[in-house]
Every structure is written in C-alpha cells, then in structure tokens.
Amino acid sequence: MNKPVNEKLNRFNKKKIFLRLGKAAFKSAVVYILFSIFSTIVAPFGGFADVQPLSIAFLAIYIFFIFAIELTRGSIFQHIFSIVNSLLIVAYIIQVLDMGVINVSLKEFSLMIDLRFFLSIFAIGGFLGFAKSMLQLLNWMNEREEYSLKNYTKSL
C-alpha cells in the first residue's frame, strides 16, 4: 500500500533534520578539536593563560553559531547567525589584542608590542565576512521574491 503524502513528507523532513544535526555536530566537534590542539601547543609558552577564560567563552559562542548556522541552512536565520558570527569574531580579535598594543613583562624588562597593523588586517577580514553575509542575505531575499513572482504569474 502507498503511504499518505503527509507521512512521506514528514519522514523526508525528519531525515533532512537528522542530516543537518549530524553536519552541525560534526563541524562543531572539528572546531572544538582544533581549539584543543591549538591550546595544548600554545599553553607551554604561557601566552595563552591571560586570555584563556575569554577564549573558552568565545569558543562556546562560536560553536553555538556554527551549529545554528548549519541547522538553519536555507532560511533567513542562517544569514542572521552568520552576520552575528562575523561581528563576534571582529569583537573577539579586538578584545584579545587589546586594541593592538600588548605589554609583555619579563623578570628584568618590559616589552611593548604594537600589533595594530595585524589587528587592522584581522578586522578588515572580519568585516569582509560581515559584508559577504549581508550580500548572501540580500541574494537569498531576492531569490525568494523571484520565486514568489514566478508562482504568481503562473497562476494568472
């Protein structure tokens, strides 16, 4: 016997949701593993201890956004999460690099490192990600409108 159409659609949507959940979990796990490897490499040098609590909080928020973007792929929420994610990256880089000037104090002397050039490069990269997300959102909205106009003209 043939199953009703609604059951077929529900089963398809369930498969699609489980596939998205699996992709989102995989991407989130990869990011967490890469962060763990990076933190174990950097930890012996002591340069990571100052920003470790902030980095862990950033990692949790970043993994949430990766999960949410993948789970909401194909909807407007994907683009909203992507925009917020790119702004979060810029804010995190500015916070960690202390506006581009880092003071390192050792036993006998103090060293001030000016990283404003690198900060500006990272910020420009983050803002390019923001612009890309905004353009993708506009493209998505345009495609939705074109689709609705095609259906409207077919019905006439």
Description:
It contains four helices and two strands; from the N terminus they run H-H-H-E-E-H. It has 156 residues and is mainly alpha-helical. It has one domain (5-155). Helix 2 (52-71) packs antiparallel against helix 3 (76-96) and helix 3 runs antiparallel to helix 4. The longest helix has 40 residues, at 116-155. It is elongated. The chain starts with a helix and ends with a helix.
**Form type:** elongated
- Secondary structure tally: strands: 2
**Mean pLDDT, all residues:** 79
Share of helix, binned: over 70%
Unreliable sequence segments: none
Strand order of the largest sheet: 1-2
- Whole-number tally of structural domains: 1
Structural class: mainly alpha
Classify the oligomer: single chain
Number of helices: 4
End-to-end separation: 37 Å
Q: What's the alpha carbon Rg, rounded to whole Å?
A: 22 Å
Mind summarizing the main beta sheet? 2 strands, antiparallel
Strand content: 5-15%
SSE string, helices as H and strands as E = HHHEEH
List keywords for this structure.
2 strands, two-stranded antiparallel sheet, mainly alpha, about 5% strand, about 160 residues
Produce the secondary structure layout.
Layout: H1 5-42, H2 52-71, H3 76-96, E1 101-105, E2 110-114, H4 116-155
Antiparallel strand pairs: 1-2
Helix pairs in contact: 1-2, 2-3, 3-4
